[in-house]
Amino acid sequence: MDKKIIVAIDGHSSCGKSTMAKALAREVGYIYIDTGAMYRGVTLAALRAGLIDAEHIDEVGLEALLPQLRLSFRLNADGLPELYLGDERVEQEIRTMRVSNFVSPISAIPAVREALTKEQQRMGASKGVVMDGRDIGTNVFPEAELKIFVTADPKVRAQRRLLELREKGDNMTTLEEVLANVESRDYADSHRAVSPLRQAEDAVVLDNTHLTHQQQSQKLSELFAQAVERLG
User: Fold this and answer.
1) What's the pLDDT tens digit per position in 36-61?
2) Nearest Cα to 204, choosing from 47, 2, 7?
3) Are 11 and 147 in contact (CB under 8 A)?
4) Sequence-distant (≥ 6) Cβ neighbours of residue 156 within 8 angstroms
5) What is the reported pTM?
6) Cβ atoms within 10 A of the Cβ of 212, count?
7) What are phi and psi of 61, to 5 degrees?
8) Is 119 helix (H, G, I), strand (E, B) or coil?
9) Measured between alpha carbons, how far is 63 from 80 in angstroms, rounded to an integer?
10) Which residues pair with 206 in a beta bridge?
């Protein structure tokens, strides 16, 4: 495939953006970049450094920590990218509720967004990438050839997220806790001052509340083919 594009997939938390982005990237031979994992990695590092408590985030300390962090993706045995903090694989730890509860306020800090946006732009400079997050089509790559905005009913998203937690061995977190986290993240993501979650004007809306994985994959494949065809 000679003509490569940037695919920007934005949307609410627990909509399955990462799952669909990984599948599309594998199908078309593109690189997949999980920007949400990068923000989770920063959040985990801040927690470990004692920069976060229930009432306060030490933004000065976090800004000093940022240049020391080495975030990277490495392929696992199945060919899927996993996040590393330095040389430590942290893919499972960044998906815990402990990290989920603080990732939105960490993501709202201007210094964090600036640092990670620059890194994401560097990663996608050569195109041929599928990138998912909150502000890919509006801020990181506003010139992306294909922009998709994903949404789904909050209760359905909470149920999906709880299932993921159960599969990873978390049998303590309740559906009510997950739903509260989903709703609070929706509000925080869409109301932050820097790069809030919003639908790009030229984005295609994909509500997957009632879609099967097969239906979703078919729709994504069609949208991708159309975007490549438009290049002429």
Assistant:
1) 999 999 999 999 999 999 889 999 99
2) 7
3) no
4) 209
5) 0.85
6) 9
7) -65, -40
8) helix
9) 30
10) 150
